[in-house]
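Input/output pair, single chain:
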Amino acid sequence: MLRIHLRKVSTMQTAVKSGVNYPQEFVKFLNSSHSPYHVVHNMKEHLLDHDFIELDERESWNGKVTHKGKYFVTRNNSSIIAFSVGGKWKPGNPIAITGAHTDSPTLRIKPISKRSNEKYAQIGVETYGGGIWHSWFDSDLSIAGRVFIQDKTTGKSVSKLVDLNKPLLKIPTLAIHLDRDVNQKFVFNKETQLLPIAGLAKNGEQSGEAKKNEEFSSIKAIVERHNEDILKLIVKDLSLESEADIEDFELILYDYAASTLGGLNDEFIFSGRLDNLTSCFTSLHALALAADTEIEEEEGIRLMASFDHEEIGSSSAQGADSNFLPNVLERLSSLKADGTDDSNPLPRSYILETSAKSFFLSSDVAHAVHPNYAGKYESQHKPIIGGGPVIKINANQRYMTNSPGMVLVKKLADKAKVPLQLFVVANDSPCGSTIGPILASKTGIRTLDLGNPILSMHSIRETGGSADLELQIKLFKEFFEKFSSIEPQIVV
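Output:
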């Protein structure tokens, strides 16, 4: 059962128009989204609840996508694109796009994870992304992800979501008595000292070779490669017959402590994965709210995309650097004025016209000023939690923001009455990047980078702002609803 710690949220932090308490809804979303696969599953459920129709990349969309329709498509069950088509859409018209990512820095279970040392059962893990790994020590850790099993009815290999949702693992720190310098500098080996313990090793437990006379297998059996007790938990969770039903899995570790509202007035959200489930949540709710608004007169398309693998560079079949978004844009740009498609597609130049007229809001979280390290920030660019979305700017194009984009977003924010903040990294500090530069260079679509401010970015436990959720939803909703009419007014 999910453990959701909720307290009363102040009236200022409650969405009035939609009747949705966004901070509490976000906490629920976080507590049920412990892996990218769970994130996309929960986003799908929200879209289905709002009458969106699922499409399949493996099939033709001829006649399936029509004016005023609402649709979504997934790839790898870890990336998702959703959109609504304007009643007056025609090829060459603009598309309003928001982009986010579903992954976060974490520890992932290795293909051969069974370990034991000094009579402890341990689990081999691999670091994923640029996490603040020392924050994982002494946290109660659980396991979630997807498991491939063989469906005995169809004979097909199918994936199932699994969330063991109990404290299973721990990466203990060394007692200060044995390391007196630990508070001066906490340095550790990520291969040998970031190794979780899962329990006490059983007598005679071995990782051993395959037993003789067993059926040949090109790879060692699951039970030989992984801790048997964890496999038994998966079997129980998925109601399988035995460990032999498991063909493979992709499992990650997460902080078992529930996401929660915090602070003296519930102004904070304490949780892992705020980077970047914050933007997945806000763009999802904004599109659901905007999908039907004045859609009959809409000349464009309103589209939300959330990609996997941003934390490791986006270069995968389902990352922002893949052909996922370009392929969807190409399909949409071949829709004829009557909403149909046939075997004689329209000239490819229509997608070029659409790309030139469209705009992409690349939304990832931003750095809130840290009161204990204020000197690390550029003196005039110190975003605060609760101050609204942060526009991120970098002269070296680590972020894609430029003046035309600033003019557009300011117009939208003025109409929606959403305060904005500006962030530039100090010249003597490194600067991260986002999916913005990747998709801007891949598609030629004008792009601006922004995001809600958080503290402890990439920690196992980050801190965000409750009030900022509704502010970003309002901004994105305004973007979806008004972009196609505002776009011709900004001449470049």
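The chain has two domains: 11-104+272-489, 106-255. The radius of gyration is 24 Å.
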